Every structure is written in C-alpha cells, then in structure tokens.
Amino acid sequence: MQQHIQMISKYLDSALAEKGWEKIAETLQEVHFKEGDTPIREGYYHNYAYIILQGGARSYYWKDDKEVITWFAFENDVVASLQNYNNKPALETVSFLENSHCLKIDLHKLHSFSQTDIATCHLINTIFEEHITFLEERLRLLQHNAGIERYLYILEKEPALLNRIPLTYLASYLGITRETLSRLRARITF
Amino acid sequence: MQQHIQMISKYLDSALAEKGWEKIAETLQEVHFKEGDTPIREGYYHNYAYIILQGGARSYYWKDDKEVITWFAFENDVVASLQNYNNKPALETVSFLENSHCLKIDLHKLHSFSQTDIATCHLINTIFEEHITFLEERLRLLQHNAGIERYLYILEKEPALLNRIPLTYLASYLGITRETLSRLRARITF
DNA sequence: CGAGGCCTTGACCGCGGTCAATGCCCGTGG
DNA sequence: CCACGGGCATTGACCGCGGTCAAGGCCTCG
C-alpha cells in the first residue's frame, strides 16, 4: 500500500507530512479503463473517485444538443464529481480519452474517514483548495477575454494539451466553436 | 458569544450540529465598514475574513484599465481571500458597497484551529464546498451562454441584486459591457 | 442652478456563430 | 495494394451579437 501512496505524487508532500493519505490509501484499488469508458454519468450516482496514474479523461455536460467540456484530467489528477461525494447525482459526465490506469477511491469511506480522522479532513481541504484555484483561474480566462487570448493562454500554460486531445474538445473547453478556434490558429501561424 | 453564533445563520445548522463554530466564535469581533472601504487589496496580505451581518461588498481585479467584478457578498456571506488564508497576497480587491456591519475572523487563528480541531476543519470544508458550487455554476453561465441568457439567469436566481448594485457592476460581473446590458434590458421590456 | 454619476441610445464595425463544402489522415475491406 | 468511408480540421459566405466611441437624458447632491 506504501507503493500506492508513492504514486500519489501530486499530493504526496503536503499530505504525507501529516500522514493524510495513510487511512484512505489502505482502501485504494487499481483499475483500468478503456478509451471511451464513462464511469461517471450526469444524473447518476457513482461511489468512486479516481487518481489517474496513466491516461486521461474529460468532463462534460449537455447544453441543448452539444457537449460542453469543463475539464481535462491526466496523470496525478483526481477525477471525481463533488455532487457524488455529497450523495447526490452527478452534474457532469466523465469519459476517458485514452486507455487509462487509475487508483479507485471509495467516496463513502473517504467521507466517513473525514468525520473522525483530521488528516483525511485536511486532505480533502487540500483537494478542494486546489480545485478552487483551478476554477478561479478559469473564470478569469472566460469572463473578459477574447477567443485569441484564451487560446494563447493554453499555448503558454498547457501546451502539452494540444498533443493529447482533439481541437474540437479544446474549443468547447475554451467556450468557442471549433471553426473559430481553427481560424484563430491560422491567424497565429502566418 | 453565543449571540455571534446565532447570527451566523447561513452555516448554523450544519456547523453547530458538529459544534464547528464554537472554537472560532470565541475570537470573533464586530466591526463596521463604510461604503467604499477596501479592507482587502490585490497584491497585499490581510489577516481577516468577514461575515456580513448587514451590508454588502464586491470583489474585483484590474484587467488592462478596467475593473472586472468576480463576486458580490451580502448578509450571511463570508468575505475573504483564499490567498490570504494561505499566507499569500490577495489576487483581488474587496470593497464595501454599503455601510456594513460584520464579524471579523482571524485567519491565522482559523488556520491553526483547523490543524487540531476537526470541527473547525469541517467548517472550512463546508465553506470551500459552497464556494466550489458557486464557481462551477458561474462557469456554466459564462462558458457557453449569450449575454441575454446571463442576464435572465440573474433575473431568475438573484433578482434582489438589481436593487442593490449599479448596472455597471452587474455588466462587469456578467462579462459584458454596460452598453450591451442596457440594450438587453431594453429588448426585454418591450 | 450647475456638476457629476449613472443609464440609455445611436452609429459603426469586427469577432465569432452557423451552415456548408472541401481537404486530410487513417483504418478497413475488396 | 488500392479504393472507400469516417473522423477531424480547415475554409468560405453570411450575418447577428456585442464592443467601442460619442452624445444625450435623468437624477441627486452640493
């Protein structure tokens, strides 16, 4: 199980320092997903979160008849629905982009550990905080920036993303159409 | 001090059930702000959060030479900078919209209580969770909705907002210009 | 009564959405 | 080995939403 803890490299430093992962790490199980697998579905309850050891996933919801992508997750990221954690149906669908290798976290156990184990409670705090930082940065990007600035932001901050996802997904993530993204890219190249 | 706890009505039910507020409540102090007071400033450290008992505030940052408003807070809302909580300079400025009456929370104490007191740790979890829900809803609003839909959302979900803030602020909050908001409103009225 | 803050309205135009056609890459099957 | 089809990206034509700049109206306060 120590091996699992070592794999959770992203939260390792802060969490192990307070022995935060030890309790939940004992319950972790390794699982594999294939490209296209969709463990978490909008409107449904799902009792697990996942840490991606190898692979990638995306989260999206349906607006009118189109998918709107809200995030991507890759190695060392946590994949979960906050609603599921609170015993409610998910608001988004999570689908794997690649064949993936994950650690499975039981949400009921995590929730109940956090009631009595302060280290687990801190662990959740850390994950929440990181998610808030991500969301606030994303809101800054979307609230008052033109399409070109949104794309340049990805080029600068997440260039690796371009090699792992279709541009159609990136466009949705940036809140623009695939055609507009295509034109923005053409503008930059020449 | 029990009086303070009773005033924190928004988090009272869940928090008091686990005695979450008791430790930090002993350190709360009542403070008053005047319209225009700006306790939290972009780039600066500020050691307090506030619960608004009466009044209102807004948070914003500077983009180019314009203010971009990220949230409003009124009665029973918590006003704080997550960066300040983590001992870093604030990313946003918080300014009071009205003469306000607040409870002041010492962030250092809150942080240190949360290290040993699991109830305080849960309290922070609750506040973080609520903030995540707020941010995710806001991202849905901004990522793939036209101006008119954004305004209609406020009309439906937060109609009281219209009576307390200038339309210029609302426009910024919705990610559009004041002129566009004005035209949208004209379209709806007739 | 004048000044300033806030909202509205007008003219103009560029960004970005929609619809449709075309190009490119690659896997599959004849 | 080549031909076809499907998935994805690009490009074009068109146009409406929303940004910018500027002017004008309304209300409040000094």
Explain how this protein is built.
The structure is a homodimer of 190-residue chains. Chain A contains nine helices and seven strands; from the N terminus they run αααβββββαββααααα. The first copy, chain A, is α+β, with helices and mostly antiparallel strands. Chain A has a single domain, classed as Jelly Rolls (Sandwich). Chain A has a four-stranded antiparallel β-sheet. A three-stranded antiparallel β-sheet of chain A has the order 4-3-6. The longest helix of chain A is centred in the last third of the chain and has 26 residues, at 118-143. Chain A starts with a helix and ends with a helix. The model of chain A has no long low-confidence stretch (mean pLDDT 87). Chain A binds chain B through residues 61, 63, 66, 68, 70, 82, 86, 91, 114-116, 118, 121-122, 124-125, 128-129, 131-133, 135-136, 138-140, 142-144, 172, 175, and chain B through 61, 63, 66, 68, 70, 82, 86, 91, 114-116, 118, 121-122, 124-125, 128-129, 131-133, 135-136, 138-140, 142-144, 172, 175. The structure holds a DNA duplex (30 and 30 nucleotides).
Distance between the termini of chain A: 52 Å
Number of helices of chain A: 9
Describe the global form of chain A. elongated
Rg of chain A over CA atoms, rounded to whole Å, is 18 Å
CATH classification class of chain A = Mainly Beta
Strands ordered across the widest β-sheet of chain A: 1-7-2-5
What class do helices, strands and sheet pairing of chain A give?
Answer: alpha+beta
Within CATH, the superfamily of chain A carries the name Jelly Rolls
Strand content of chain A: 15-25%
